[in-house]
Amino acid sequence: MKGTGAAPGKRQRLATELRRLRDLAGISGRDLATRIGISQSKVSRIESGTVIPTMPEVTAWAEAVEASPETRAWLSEMTESAFTEVHTWRAELQRQAHLQDDIREQEDQARLVRVFQPTLIPGLLQTAEYARRVFALFDPPYSDGDLAMALAARLQRQLALYQESRRFEFLITEAALRCRPGPPRLLLAQLDRVASVSTLENVTIGLIPHNREAVVFPSHGFTIYDTDIGDDAAEGTFVEIETTHVRLTAHDAEDVAIYTRQWSLLSGTAIYDDEAREFLSALAADVRALDR
Fold first, then answer.
1. Greater confidence, 143 or 167?
2. Which of 73, 192, 205, 291 suits a disulfide with 198, CB 3.0-4.6 Å?
């Protein structure tokens, strides 16, 4: 389900099967909710694929609809595998020209988006030319037409930063700030863009200088999405991790907690507000020296 970070697959098949079993058993959503001890609204979210049910909930669901042993085994296997989704970039880009619209749908459903990026400026903060050059480095490469569409869609996503009801937090390492996919003037414009966005009331940008003592070693960038879809705030939280060849989506509470802890530790090493903008100015001075 695009809106919650899942392409059609195991998660949606699980939701469809649970709905089908309930319909076959002739049980209403309200009655099923009573039998398994959850709210009717959560039954609806499970059947739409918005929320992944816990294993005890799936077991109780199967008992309530008198599912066969074979079906119960399939449901258990599907539930376990749905908590961590793996999508290869190659397969995703064969399915569609770019992924920016999928990402925007995820962001639209989140009350808070937290982005950690150790290698380059996060997409929501990129200037048009910086973004174009980043897309041009993708492997497998975009065609010229698809690259233009991806760039336009990324810039469209950035409009969310100016909606005061939305909340965005970024942690960016010095290495990412110094990443230069083009001439020095490109990076100067990009650093200025980061400084400008940092003044928005609903946006927090933390910068992690090289001289900070390491408190954790995240090997990849990650994004934590906190949504409003659950009775429990943690229910709607999931994490996306980008690697070289795959995109991982973690829904399991224990996995999400790992990234939440990493975020907390990393944010404690960051600098913010005026101190961060002064740091950006110092970096800009270093970049200007490259042109001399």
1. 167
2. 205
Give Cα separations from 92 to 5, 197, 222 (angstroms): 12, 30, 18
pLDDT over threshold 60, residue 168: yes
- Helix (H) or strand (E) holding 238, with range, is strand 237-242
pLDDT of residue 219: 83
Strand ranges across the sheet with 167-173: 84-88, 246-250, 237-242, 222-227, 110-117, 167-173, 203-208
Kindly list the structural domains of the chain, giving each domain's residue range(s) and its CATH number in brackets, ordered by start.
2-82 (1.10.260.40), 86-290 (3.30.870.10)
CA distance 94 to 64: 40
Stretch 93-107: mean pLDDT, rounded? 83
Residues near 170 by beta carbon (within 8 Å), at least 6 away in sequence: 114, 115, 116, 117, 122, 124, 125, 203, 204, 205, 206
At 7 the pLDDT is 41
Reported pTM: 0.81
Residue type at 8 in one-letter notation = P
Q: Which amino acid is at 25?
A: A
| 114 membership: H or E segment, kind and range | strand 110-117
